[in-house]
Amino acid sequence: MRLPCVQKQQNLIAAIAEICVSPMQEVQALRILIYRGEAACRQYLRSVLVKRKKVF
Q: Which of 16, 49, 51, 56 is in Cβ range 3.0-4.6 Å of 29 for a Cys bridge?
């Protein structure tokens, strides 16, 4: 069973809040979600995680 679009976006918004460490990252992730879609937003969040792992 696939989640409805709204539920998937709510999960993604929760992930944005958890992954992003600065307000600017959160705003950027939300902009990507709105204008480019879910797949692009997930890709951005993965890149944020990778950059964070390189720092630590």
A: 16
